[in-house]
Amino acid sequence: MRNIWTIAKRELHLLFIGPIAYITMIVFLLTLGIFFYIELSYAIQTQQYIPTMGTSFQLIAFPLLFLAIPAITMRSIAEEKRTGTLEFLLTAPVRDWELITGKWLGGFLFFLITLAVTLVYPLVLSLIIKPGIDLGAILAGYIGLILLASAMTAIGIAMSSLFNNQIASLFATLGVIIVFWIISSPAQYMEGIGGDILRNLSLTTHLYDTFLAGILDLKDMLYYISFTVFALFIGKTAVEIRRWG
Amino acid sequence: MIKVTKLTKDYGARRAIDNLSFHAERGEVIGFLGPNGAGKTTTLRILSGYMPPTFGKAEIGGFDVVDQSLEVRKIVGYLPETVPLYPDMTVFEFLKYKADLHHIPNAEDRVDEVLEMVDMLDRSEGYIAALSKGMRQRVGLGQALLHKPEVLILDEPTIGLDPAQIIEVRNLIKRIGKERTIMLSTHILSEAQQVCDRVLIINKGHIVAEDTPERLQSRLAGSQRVELRIRKNSEEAMPLIKKVRGVTNVTVTTDDLLEFEMGANQDVRPNVARAIVQGGFDLLEMKQNTLSLEDIFLELTRDETTPPSLKDRADQP
């Protein structure tokens, strides 16, 4: 367990010593800021509309996390493989799953920090709206985004462990995320159990209909958690296969 | 401490090492000697727990390197061939990271201790990206020593170092080797001679010789090579020389040059000279070449032992 934290710390540190972390956060804040301004202006103009975080949450889910996660995780294991530092890690007393989990935790913590930074907008909102905002909706939205980030980061780590090449890892991650993003669309034209399965596999169904609508459902939480665990298991197996291959 | 039985590793169709067996006791420094591509790195990687053998078994400290890989990694310090370092870390950060992965208590103090051991204390705040090859090698050595491993596996530890550093590292190895087992690979023969208690010569995945450096040397002294220069056709003189007692392995190098070997204890040169002169040849020169460790090395690693897998493939059309 200690090794997971050691590796996660190193991973997080690596993002902050370069420009990557800061650029990502600036992009997040800037994009959200622009739309937040539009939201407020619209509310002021019409005088019949109460501004919410709804648009912001949707923006964070797509395109912000959607694009940022593959970019942040692509390096993670692929780079260690390319430079040979994986040999250094795997000859230290570190279990394969500790390595993968540590790598994931580092990326996940980074997105937690990034999401925490965006809390500035609901804070502003709560200050200017009387008698206050719907805290429950905000909480549900953030929990949903955190779970989404967890699952997508796990996909990124799994893909990164399959390749030596960062760009290959980037596009593989993007590809897997896209597939799970749109997988529920064909379900509209399917009847019976097939359509249900596709709908339940989708990263979006579990987010938009519940968390972003202010609903907390244990089923959706379990979905993202199992998604994360399964993706990390693939990553662990990929490292293991290379070792035994 | 190290026990290797019938270790074999295939990379696809290529057999990198074939049926290696050897052992090392505590406090022994074993040199792994061989040309490039002989299978040294492969063997050391298996011992370090980085990858498994195709067949065979390797044990370190009683732990199997495959089934008890984690236990093995706890007691082994490993310096890979190309030292993998993170260029964006400082020397101190890197060693601290490794120390944390080993759960070393008072990691900072231990890192400083190791830095002093490898003489890098003054560069501890410097980024690894800015280090010279030799310094990186020393950091690599430091990371292998951090957790006071019982077994050290060093893949070409002195490569890229300047002569003064080479001497330092060799002394360090000798000092550490007194209470710990060290297995190091090298292709520098004098290095093996200086620091190793025992030398394994490996070629094309096979062990071709195993002995103490001294005994290998005396084995060299066991036969001596003599070069002869004769006017006229040397080939005609060959049967004459062959007849002299104690002469073995006569070869014709060029038109007027001949070579033969003789046992170390019996100097038959006068007899050979007499035979040549009596046979009507003009003896121009006779020179004794002492075989160096290099020659034995070349001799042993020349060809005769082509691994079976390679032979099989050569037979195919």
Note down, in words, how this protein is organized.
The complex is a heterodimer of chains A (245) and B (317). Chain A has 245 residues and is mainly alpha-helical. Chain A is built from twelve helices and no strands. In chain A, helix 6 (96-117) packs antiparallel against helix 8 (135-160). In chain B, a hairpin with a 2-residue loop joins strand 1 (2-11) and strand 2 (14-24). Chain B has two domains: 2-212, 3-Layer(aba) Sandwich (Rossmann fold), CATH 3.40.50; 222-299, Alpha-Beta Plaits. Chain B has 317 residues and is of the alpha/beta class. The chains are: A mainly alpha (245), B alpha/beta (317). Chain A binds chain B through residues 2-3, 6-7, 10, 14, 17-18, 83-95, 243-244, and chain B through 45, 48-52, 70, 73-74, 76, 78, 80, 82, 84-86, 88, 97-98, 100-103, 143.
Please write out the topology.
The complex is a heterodimer of chains A (245) and B (317).
Chain A: H1 2-17, H2 20-46, H3 54-73, H4 78-83, H5 85-90, H6 96-117, H7 120-128, H8 135-160, H9 166-182, H10 193-201, H11 205-208, H12 218-244
Helix pairs in contact in A: 1-6, 2-3, 3-8, 3-9, 6-8, 6-12, 8-9, 8-12
Chain B: E1 2-11, E2 14-24, E3 29-33, H1 40-47, E4 55-60, E5 63-64, H2 69-75, E6 76-79, H3 91-101, H4 107-117, H5 133-145, E7 151-155, H6 163-176, E8 181-186, H7 189-195, E9 198-203, E10 206-211, H8 213-221, E11 223-230, H9 234-243, E12 247-254, E13 257-263, H10 269-278, E14 283-289, H11 293-301, H12 308-315
Parallel strand pairs in B: 3-8, 3-9, 6-7, 7-8
Antiparallel strand pairs in B: 1-2, 1-4, 4-5, 9-10, 11-13, 11-14, 12-13
Helix pairs in contact in B: 3-4, 4-5
